[in-house]
Amino acid sequence: MLDIQWIITFLALGAVVGFMAGLLGIGGGGIMVPTLTSIFLLMGVATEYVVHLALGTSLASIVTTSFASLRAHHQNQGVIWHIVQKMSLGIILGTFLATFFAAHLNSLALAIFFASYMAIVAVQIILDKKPKPSRKTVGKLGLFSTGVGIGIVSALVSIGGGTMTVPFLLWQNINMRQAIGTSAAIGFPIAIAGTIGYIINGWDSHILGSYSFGFIYLPAVFLISIVSFFTAPLGAKLAHSLPIPTLKELFAVLLVVLSVKMLLMIYL
After folding, report:
1. Are 194 and 99 in contact (CB under 8 A)?
2. What's phi and psi for 154, nearest 5 deg?
3. Would the pTM of this model clear 0.70, i.e. be above it?
4. Residue of 152, 187, 166 whose CA lies nearest to 66
5. DSSP-derived 3-state class of residue 58
6. Which letter, b or e, does each residue of 3-21 get, where b requires 16 or more Cβ atoms within 10 Å of its Cβ?
7. Which residue among 40, 125, 148, 254 has the highest number of C-beta atoms inside a 10 angstrom radius?
8. Distance (Å, whole) CA 17 – CA 11
9. Do 149 and 91 form a contact (C-beta atoms < 8 A)?
């Protein structure tokens, strides 16, 4: 039986992750991975596997929210499906294969990669740099190759790929609304492929007994998902009345602080 303190902790994390994702349009992996790493260490998970468990659990938790986001954007005609179709095979391949690579890295190496990527994301958010549109759209091979790259990074840092997909689509002369919607649709196969990969690669680990399924901790996935599904719309609603640029800068600082905290916990 899961202790009540952990139930409350995972519910609270789901509330924060969903709300911030809706408010800022940024996936919850940046918050979930370092927070779950801290929680799992307190629960007694060995340092050797703690980041793997945090990455897998985070990706599995994103499945529900990414599907809800996909459906909402589709209903508002914000998804360019032929781009999703052409990128998805590369996305699935890159994400799935990267989980096998991640399984052979130690937790410190994964934590360093995660922290480095989050630092880049934070700088991008603060500077608000947008790519200059290109008049020429890449073909099927270009979309497939980009999908592979996005999938690889997404699996290693447990994100839906939005921080890479949206700038890429803007560079392709796609308007912001459709870039965000198409990126949301692409996030669903990333979450599915990553979840399957982390289940397979952690199949024999049994890190937290019968509650774990590969590198996925099922109670956390359920509790985080069920709350974030409801808090994401609240964040999206509030986004229309708050100074988003300032909030994004604060969020960027939070990402860096959480990542550094995770690094220190793993290293020390």
Report:
1. yes
2. -60, -40
3. yes
4. 187
5. helix
6. eeebeebbeebbbbbbbbb
7. 40
8. 10
9. no
User: Which positions ≥6 away from 4 have C-beta within 8 Å?
Assistant: none
pLDDT beyond 80 at 166: yes
Token duo for residue 88: 């998805």
- Which distant-in-sequence residues (6+ apart) come within 8 Å of 212 by Cβ? 53, 202, 205, 206, 218
And the tokens for 93?
């391949």
Residue, of 237 and 15, whose pLDDT is higher: 15
Q: How confident is the model at residue 180 (pLDDT cuts 50, 70, 90)?
A: confident
CA 29 to CA 36: how far, in whole Å? 10
Q: Model confidence at 143, in pLDDT bands (50, 70, 90)?
A: very high
d(CA 119, CA 116): 5
* pLDDT in the model for residue 135: 57
Average pLDDT, the chain: 86
Helices within the chain (DSSP H only): 4-24, 29-42, 47-75, 81-103, 107-127, 140-157, 162-171, 176-201, 218-238, 244-267
Q: Report the alpha-carbon distance of residue 210 to residue 189 in Å, rounded.
A: 27
